[in-house]
Amino acid sequence: VQLVESGGGLAQPGGSLRLSCVASGFTLSTYNMGWFRQAPGKEREFVAGIRWDRGSTYYSDSVKGRFTISRDNAKNILYLQMNNLKPEDTALYYCAKVRPWADGSTVTPFGSWGQGTQVTVSS
Fold first, then answer.
1. pLDDT value at position 1?
2. Exposed e or buried b per residue across 59-92, where buried means at least 16 C-beta atoms within 10 angstroms of its C-beta
C-alpha cells in the first residue's frame, strides 16, 4: 500500500493549485479518503473527505467553498483542487484513508501516510 502526493508548490494569494494522490496496492474507490495538512508548529488537521460509495464530500470550515476533493477511479488517483488560496493554507498536505464519519464529527485517518506535498502561499 502506497500513497504518493504531488502538485504542491508556490502560489500567490488568490491563486490555485491541484494536488494529486496516486494510490497503489489498493483500490481507492473502495475506501473513504481524505486530505490533511500540517503547518509548521501545528497539529495535522483535516481538510477534505470523500466517501467511497456515493462520493459525497465534506470539508473543514476553513476551506469550504474554496477547495474541492475528487477522485478518478480509473486512474486510482485522489485530487484536491485548491482555489482562492490564502497564506494560512501554507502547509504540508497529505492524503490518507479515513474511517467512516458523520458530518460535523471528527474525521479519523488510518493506515499509511505518503511523504506529503508542500504548498506555500505567499506574494
1. 87
2. bbeebeeebbbebeeeebbbbbebeebeeebbbb
Give the cell for residue 99: 474511517
d(C-alpha 57, C-alpha 52), whole Å: 10
Q: Give 85-119 pLDDT, tens digit per residue.
A: 999 999 999 999 999 999 889 999 999 998 999 99
Mean pLDDT, to the nearest integer, of 18-44?
A: 96
